[in-house]
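Hi everyone, sorry if this is the wrong subforum. Our group has a chain we'd like a structural model of before ordering constructs, and none of us has done structure prediction before. Sequence below.
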Amino acid sequence: MRLALTLAAATVAACGLALSGTAAPSACGPAQIGGATVRTWCGTAKATVTWAGKKMSLKGGQCSLEKVSGLALFAVNLGRYTVPRAKPKFKSFSAAGSDLKPGTYKYWLINFQTPGKQWTLKPTTTNVTITAPGAKKGTFSGKLYAGGKLAKGSWSC
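Answer:
Right subforum, don't worry. Here is the predicted structure as tokens:
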């Protein structure tokens, strides 16, 4: 049940307001770009991901804490997220979970996009270490659904 709530909340957090329709042009928020809905995240968050010999670093993202069905859910989102069915056009990173205190946890939803590809870590293989209260800093590792390769990285708010 906790995993289902975490996955549902992460999906909502990742999509944010992107499904609310076409927004007025803005540096942050949802917009229609090349026939796709793209959500641009802004703020002070940073993240780095390494996988399959590649590395992606992003800055200028948002951290949020929401209550869903009485459960506190943290999310960090960076970059320009292309809402699915469209093929990803930009780089983005999202991580979400219900663990807020320093420690090591499983079952976080972590995904990222590169132009043309969506990458998602298997929640059952994901290890997240919260290094600051409120999940303001953390590291992660886990296996990707695509190919089973290891992906790892960090975020900070």
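For your construct planning: DSSP finds one helix and twelve strands in the chain. Residues 2-156 form one domain.
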